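Task 17 of the worksheet. Students: predict the tertiary structure of the chain below and write it out as structure tokens. Keep your answer in the requested format; marks are given for formatting as well as content.
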Amino acid sequence: MAIGGDFVSKTTLFIVGFIAFIALPAEAAVKKYQFDIQVKNVSRLCHAKPIVTVNGRFPGPTLYAREGDRVIVNVTNHAKYNMSIHWHGLKQYRNGWADGPAYITQCPIQTGNSYAYDFNVTGQRGTLWWHAHILWLRATVYGAIVIMPKPGTPFPFPKPNMEQIVVLGEWWHKDVEEIVKQGTNMGLPPNMSDAHTINGKPGPLFPCSEKHTFAMEVESGKTYMLRIVNAALNDELFFAIAGHNMTVVEVDAVYTKPFVTQAILIAPGQTTNVLVRADRSPGRYFMAARPFMDAPLPVDNKTATGILQYKGIPNTVLPTLPQLPAPNDTDFALSYNKNLKSLNSANFPANVPLKVDRKLFYTVGFGKDPCPTCVNGTRILASLNNISFVMPKIGLLQAHYFNMSGVFRTNFPDKPPKPFNYTGAPLTANLGTAHGTRLSKIAFNSTVELVLQDTNLLTVESHPFHLHGYNFFVVGTGIGNFDPVKDPAKYNLVDPVERNTVGVPTGGWTAIRFRADNPGVWFMHCHLELHTGWGLKMAFVVEDGKGADQSILPPPKDLPPC
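Model answer:
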């Protein structure tokens, strides 16, 4: 609920059109929100269960701001779980205290306590999102962030008539935290989700879901911008609308060269803005989301649907289903990602680092730990450079800022301990995976190239990696082993896509570049919650610069205690 004159009203989650911005002042403003973490009974698929929510809403409220605004979100925790919230994709310059990952930049907000996330929205505009960043609570604690351009700054594409937020998610019948606990105790992956959702609703292909169907009314001839977020925990998703093409114009709050596609691929953590023109014969058309999985692994392959309904068409007309790519359509995935390029215009240049100061090569793999009480006598874990990350008991940013010893080491290796045939036959022998809270130290303002290489340690699989505190350029990607001699010659250094979360293809590699101009401790992890929990994560310590405005800001007074 909004309180006070300068609080933005949050009574409507899915606001169509630009109504939300009419009341906003033209100059940079302070936007204040109150997020109450509370448990609420919610019914889906014929089952009711208590879920953790923000302000009793699922999905949570949309956070609206304009480029240049200051945003203050006061989070009060009324739930039994510790809580922290991450503003996914916001760069938080010098201000890691507002980034949100538990035990990385802060200790969590304990039951009965509050913390105000106070941050500036600088040099960013577009669609991002927020979510819980502790345990698996983001299963229900998530919502969109809409950042409008500065007043008088048009979109670099024809202005749509209306906008619509479309947040894709997952739903479990049972208590998600209990399911995870059970999986951990058995040393196995927890049960997969029971449904996918569009704006929290599974759609009519699921039981008891007639009233749990997202519908969007359109008028013939008008253009709509869909702000699409993948808030699923573990599934990359295809999304399409029957009979309608989509024009991709933005990913991860960065404008792209527009291109037309029948379907999009969106990984957990990613956002995509598309333009859809209501140019088909008036009727009812399904929009649908279903997983992409091209590794031999089980997945919740059920299709979530919503309805695109032309004005004046009765609900009795049966909608048509879109043709989604096959669940294992690797070719579509690779060609779709190849089509993503930065706009790279005079107003929105792609400042790709051409000279690299620091080259990093990280292997992504799985392993097993002995576990006498587990089902197979082992527990699955995941690693980068054969190191499975151990979460600390205190925020790493505090430990770094206050020079606390014994919390972490800065000896994360720049390359794997032993090179091997990364994507050859599956390696299942004793892999000797190490455990540790090991970080990589990066000099301020240095340019970094990181190659993420999938491996066949137990199995190959696609991994969406998210880097906090930064956007990066995706300069190259390929299938098989990265070739340090031949592959860099094929990099796109002119207009590569710029984003904050990137997929590493199954049995392949992805190369990213960024300039380390944001001091602090910045988490990098797989955005599949399953893999993050198994240790597929690490963090960078970016050192302070010499300038007065190049060091970490002091911590806020209400930073949660450990």
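Marker's comment: Confidence is low (pLDDT under 50) at residues 1-25. The two ends are 29 Å apart (CA to CA).
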